[in-house]
Amino acid sequence: AKMASVGRVARKVVERGKLFFLPNWYLKVVKPAENVANDTIQLHVPMKMTKIDIKNYLTQIYNLPVIKVTTRIQAGSHGIRRVGRHPKHVTKIRVRKKKDVKIAYVKVRDLKVNFYDIFAKTIENMNKSQNETQHGS
Q1: Helical H segments across the chain, by residue range
Q2: How far is Cα 12 from Cα 133, in angstroms, rounded to an integer?
Q3: Burial class (CB within 10 angstroms; exposed 0-12, middle 13-18, buried 19+) of 29
Q4: 21-30, 62-71, 79-88: segment of lowest average pLDDT
Q5: What does the DSSP 8-state code read for residue 100?
Q6: What is the pLDDT of residues 11-20, one digit of tens each?
Q7: Which of 50, 68, 123, 132 can bridge 107 by disulfide, Cβ–Cβ 3.0-4.6 Å?
Q8: How confident is the model over 32-41, as pLDDT tens digits?
Q9: Predicted confidence (pLDDT) at residue 105 exceeds the cutoff of 90
Q10: How far is C-alpha 27 from the geometric centre of its chain's CA atoms?
């Protein structure tokens, strides 16, 4: 297999006469916690990825018409773990910090993003069956 670099975004691989683009990074689409416009996608991206890299990644691999990319770094939370044999006598307290996350807000032209609750029907069915069993017995 032949490999050639296509900038920092992806590697070009030619195998058996077919051309493949393999990304160097991965992006994770997440549902925004705060209210974000319908034409904006929230992503978790690697810390080394720049705004230009994110734009090139989405336009070259997914053919998305990106208008603007905004990034911020979310500080990781601190977790406290108490270690000891007896609840009253704690021998050690370990503090661990979760990794920081780089969050990108990507504004895309002519695209509406809606997140659906895929478990809504399942939860309704579970509640309905619980109510039937409680009222039935």
Answers
A1: 51-62, 120-136
A2: 58
A3: exposed
A4: 79-88
A5: P
A6: 777 777 777 7
A7: 68
A8: 877 777 788 8
A9: yes
A10: 6
Phi, psi (rounded to 5 degrees) for 58: -75, -35
Residue 78 reports pLDDT greater than 70: yes
Taken in order 35, 107, 49, 11, is the CA torsion positive or negative?
Answer: positive
Strands (E), the chain: 2-6, 10-15, 18-23, 28-30, 40-45, 66-74, 78-83, 92-97, 101-108
Which pair of structure tokens corresponds to residue 103? 């969050």
Q: Count of CB atoms within 10 A of residue 65's CB?
A: 11
3-state secondary structure of 35: coil
pLDDT value at residue 2: 42
